[in-house]
Amino acid sequence: MFKRSKKNLAEERFKLLSDNMAASILLRDIDGKTLFLSPYTEILTGYPLETLKNDFLLAIHPEDLETFNKAYKVVSLGESYQLRFRIAHRSGIEIWAESRIVPIMNDSGDYEGSLTITFDVTGQVRYQKIVEARNRELQDFSYMISHDLKSPLYTIKGMLGVIEADYLSNLSPELKEIINHIQTAQGRLESLITGILEYSRASSEAIEESEIQLKEILTDIKRDFNLKDNEIDAPDYKVLGNKTKLYQIISNLVSNAIKYKDHKRELAIKVRVTKEGNRVFITVSDNGRGLSEDQLGLIFRPFHRIHRDLEGTGVGLAIVQTLVDRMGGEIKVESKVGEGSRFIVCLRGV
Questions:
Q1: Cα(183)–Cα(156) distance, integer angstroms
Q2: Nearest CA to 345 among 208, 231, 194, 218?
Q3: Closest Cα partner for 156 from 193, 122, 125?
Q4: Separation of alpha carbons 238 and 350, rounded Å
Q5: Mapping DSSP to helix (H, G, I), strand (E, B) and coil, where does residue 270 land?
Q6: Partner residues linked to 280 by β-bridges
Q7: Whole-number pLDDT of residue 332
Q8: 270: left (phi over 0), alpha (psi -120 to 50) or beta
Q9: 227, 343, 338: which is closest to 287 by C-alpha?
C-alpha cells in the first residue's frame, strides 16, 4: 500500500511539473512509440496532442528530419544527445527549438526508451542572427576603412613629408602653422582609423580559449609598466580565456590609470587578484581623476571620450568590455570624482 501511494505521489508530481513547464516533454518506448507528451508541445508545434502522439515527426522541419532521426539512433546506444532544429509549426511559422534527449535504461543496462525535453529558442537564434549580421556589417565597414580611407590618408601623410623635407624652410610662419595643423589632423584621423580597426577585431576576431597561468600575464604587466611589488599581485591562479586578449584587457586598464592620473597628487595604482569559488576577480584601482555617475554610464561606449583634454580614440574600454564578454566574464567599475576608480574584471577560474 505504501509503495503504491509513493508511486502515485511521484506521478502526480511529474504531471504537475510537465503541465506547468514551458517546454515540451516527450517519452518514447524502445520502438519509438510516443508514451507521453506534455501540454506545452501543442503550443510549441500548433498541432493537437493526439495528432502528435500518432506521428510526432510531423512537427519536425523536413530538412532537419535526418538530423533528428540520427539523434535518436545515438540515444538508443545509451548516449545522451543535444541538438538544435526547426519545427514546422502548423501555422507555417518557422520555430527554432533545442532538445536534450536522454536514454532510459533498465536495471540490466538495456535501452528501454527515451526522454526528450525541448525548449523554444527562436528568440535566441534570431538575436544571434542579428549579431552575426551586425558583425558582418562591422567587418565590411572595417574593410572600407582599411582600404578606402587609409590609401588617401597615406597619400596626405606622404605629401606632408615631402613638404616638410623639401619646402618647409622656405615657407612663411603662417604657412608653417597651417602645415602643422594639417599634420595634427592627419595624426588624429590615423589614430581614429586604427581605433576602429582594433574595435572591429575585438568584436569579430576568433578567440581561442585555453587555461591561462595568470601569474605569467601579471608578471609581464609588472615589467612592462614598471610596477612595484606592492602595486601588483601575482598569484598562481588559472583562468579560462585567451592569453593575448587577457594581457590586452589588464594592460589597457593599467595604462588608463596612468594616463588619467590626477596631477595634484602622486599616482597610486594597485592590481589585486582574488578568487571566490570558480571565479577569479582582477581589480585595477587608482587615485586618479575619477568619474561622475553620468560618466560611468558612458565609458564603455565606443568612440565616446570622457576626458577630451587628453589624446585618445575612445575605444580602449569598449574593447576591454568586448573582450571580457567574449571570454565569458564580467566587468564593472566603481568611481568618484577626485578620488579615483576601481575596475573589477571577473573571469572563469580553473
A1: 9
A2: 218
A3: 193
A4: 5
A5: strand
A6: 275, 347
A7: 92
A8: beta
A9: 338
The identity of residue 47, as a single letter, is Y
Cell of 181: 595643423
Which of 277, 275, 257 lies closest to 267, judged by CA? 257
Amino acid found at 115: L
Structural domains in the chain, CATH included, are: 12-120 (3.30.450.20), 127-204 (1.10.287), 210-348 (3.30.565.10)
8 A C-beta contact, residue 233 and residue 199: no
What's the pLDDT at 313? Answer: 62
User: Does residue 3 surpass a pLDDT of 60?
Assistant: no
Cβ proximity of 42 and 33 under 8 Å: no
Looking at the chain, list the stretches that DSSP marks H as alpha helix, in order from N- to C-terminal side: 2-20, 40-45, 49-54, 65-75, 122-144, 150-166, 173-204, 214-224, 243-259, 293-296, 316-326
pLDDT in the model for residue 2: 43
